[in-house]
């Protein structure tokens, strides 16, 4: 794998291999070759706590050499393009770039090169607009696998701001491919008929007692228009589409609740339930480090980077 920008092309075997490798790292396994001469950079043009820090933790655990990049202090502010920014990194000797950007498929011009273009840097997508969030999706798969040991036959509900959520896009696609039955819920204006390819839309109260995984999605205020924001009521959303204590009590005994974070407390998720027994919010963040190690390693192997075998 030269780049890791989407889950589109992953098959079940590859997903399971990534899960096994992430579990190896979680159990204290070490990378198999010396990566201290491999330079990487994290370029986050949109806000992030989990993904940015988690990738940096993963890189350090792998022994990579991590460079800092602050978009606000960079020449992007003088009008330099993303391509030219990456060309600069390449020229300096950077081999891998983890990028988050507000533009869907920002990565296409960085990986589909013309005959005269020389950019040679592995791109790992840390989230593109409302497009894809492959590392979140795969850490979610690890978290589900840890609980159930399988995907086929599981009932998974994705609830909330589906249209704007890159987590939802990646997860609906991969869960469907892995044989899970996907349901959608939340406000109908955040549901798109295009999602029918992957699952069916139901009311939350119909789903709560029957799903194995209840995946709550963050309300993405930053992607909404002014009118949408003016009419939004936190209390009303929580009562209609949020995980209330009443709904939590109706979940199956072994069901789990997931949320990619950051959480709008008492909106998607009752604040008192964020760390409840069935919540996997913290486990998802912990798993993120190990899955990102596995993803980085896959690109490192695809590009034949790294020093001698340890
Ligand atoms: N889940 C997620 O992408 O969180 P951050 O925006 O904090 O990285």
TrEMBL record:
One of its GO terms (cellular component) is cytosol. Its EC number is 2.1.3.2. It is an enzyme of class 2 (transferase). It catalyses: carbamoyl phosphate + L-aspartate = N-carbamoyl-L-aspartate + phosphate + H(+). PROSITE patterns: CARBAMOYLTRANSFERASE. Residues 2-146 form the Aspartate/ornithine carbamoyltransferase carbamoyl-P binding domain. Pathway: Pyrimidine metabolism; UMP biosynthesis via de novo pathway; (S)-dihydroorotate from bicarbonate: step 2/3. L-aspartate binds at residues 78, 166, 218. Keywords: Pyrimidine biosynthesis, Transferase. GO terms for molecular function: amino acid binding; aspartate carbamoyltransferase activity. Coiled coil: none annotated. Residues 153-297 form the Aspartate/ornithine carbamoyltransferase Asp/Orn-binding domain. One of its GO terms (biological process) is amino acid metabolic process. Heterododecamer (2C3:3R2) of six catalytic PyrB chains organized as two trimers (C3), and six regulatory PyrI chains organized as three dimers (R2). Catalyzes the condensation of carbamoyl phosphate and aspartate to form carbamoyl aspartate and inorganic phosphate, the committed step in the de novo pyrimidine nucleotide biosynthesis pathway. Belongs to the aspartate/ornithine carbamoyltransferase superfamily. ATCase family. This is Aspartate carbamoyltransferase. The gene is pyrB.
């Amino acid at each position: 794998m030269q780049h890791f920008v989407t889950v589109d092309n992953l098959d079940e075997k590859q997903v399971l291999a990534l899960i096994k490798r992430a579990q190896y790292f979680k159990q204290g396994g070490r990378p198999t070759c010396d990566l201290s001469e491999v330079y990487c950079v994290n370029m986050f043009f949109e806000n992030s706590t989990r993904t940015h820090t988690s990738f940096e933790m993963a890189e350090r655990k792998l022994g990579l050499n991590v460079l800092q990049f602050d978009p606000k202090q960079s020449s992007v502010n003088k009008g330099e393009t993303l391509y030219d920014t990456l060309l600069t990194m390449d020229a300096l000797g950077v081999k891998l770039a983890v990028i988050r950007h507000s533009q869907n498929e920002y990565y296409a011009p960085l990986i589909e090169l013309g005959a005269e273009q020389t950019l040679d840097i592995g791109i790992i997508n840390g989230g593109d607009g409302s497009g894809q969030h492959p590392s979140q999706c795969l850490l979610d798969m690890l978290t589900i696998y840890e609980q159930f040991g399988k995907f086929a036959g599981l009932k998974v509900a994705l609830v909330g701001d589906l249209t704007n959520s890159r987590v939802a896009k990646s997860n609906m696609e991969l869960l469907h491919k892995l044989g899970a039955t996907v349901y959608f819920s939340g406000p109908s204006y955040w549901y798109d008929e295009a999602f029918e390819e992957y699952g069916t839309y139901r009311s939350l109260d119909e789903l709560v007692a029957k799903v194995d995984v209840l995946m709550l999605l963050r309300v993405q205020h930053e992607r909404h228009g002014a009118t949408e924001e003016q009419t939004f009521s936190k209390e009303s959303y929580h009562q209609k589409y949020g995980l209330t204590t009443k709904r939590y009590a109706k979940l199956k005994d072994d069901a789990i609740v997931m949320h990619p974070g950051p959480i709008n407390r008492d909106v998607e998720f009752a604040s008192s339930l964020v760390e409840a027994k069935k919540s996997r919010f913290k486990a998802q963040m912990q798993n993120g480090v190990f899955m990102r190690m596995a993803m980085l390693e896959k690109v490192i192997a695809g590009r034949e980077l790294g020093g001698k075998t340890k």
